[in-house]
Amino acid sequence: HLNRFDWQPPGKGLFPALERRLNTMAGRFVCLAREGRRLRLYLDASGSLSMLFSAEHGMAASTVALFPSGGEADDNLELITALDVGRRNRFFPFGLTPRHSIQRILPNHVLNLDTWKVHRWWPTAAITQAAAPEEALHEIAGLLRGTVLSLIEAGHRPYLSLTAGYDSRTLLALLREERDAIDWFTWDLPDANAARDVQIAHQLARDLGLNHRVIPFTAASAQEQALWQHRCGLAVGELRGMSLASTVAAMGNWRYYLPGLGSEVGRAFYWRNE
Fold it and tell me: What global pTM score does this model have?
């Protein structure tokens, strides 16, 4: 709907206007936009939906398995061996994939489908510090809450995980008025972190009257873990996630699940000293 875009400088035409609009959107999405012969592909701000591309094959797709075979010469054997993602908590970084001919589109980058070139579209200049941080926080909170409300108002009852982490507790605070419209859950995984999650979640659910349940862990079979890796294009080795494949499937794939990841990004909790 081009008439909805804010046609104001800087930049004129469809793509600058579209990019200004995309900067206001929350949620997970892939956006295809055409202007004349130019066709571009954008991801959401965190690149939460996987998107790969290959100029050699002239195609873009969500996983390596969807691309035609390039033969053994196309396999990046040195990198595959070094990362060993099937047995470690590792992934292919910097847009790399298990194949030489295939690249991953990174967050805040756009793929020109007419040239098969990718470039950063945001930020391309210094980021202006918010004059009123509290107003910025209110805006961020509004985007997050609006994303969940859109599901609830459409008649859905989403799952939302409840743990001892900042991420889920931040969303719980944000959605306190909607807490009765959400099914809160905690996975009872066989490790110390999960035990703490269950303990804190029990306390929060009791104190706040949440509709909460603890979901018992069922270890995924070797076949289920292999299928998990296949769906990820053999590009992600997340051992906890693979072990949960059976447990997640039992929850039902027709329900919306809001994992609440991302709060620790701002706190830089996972950054290494080096």
Answer: 0.81
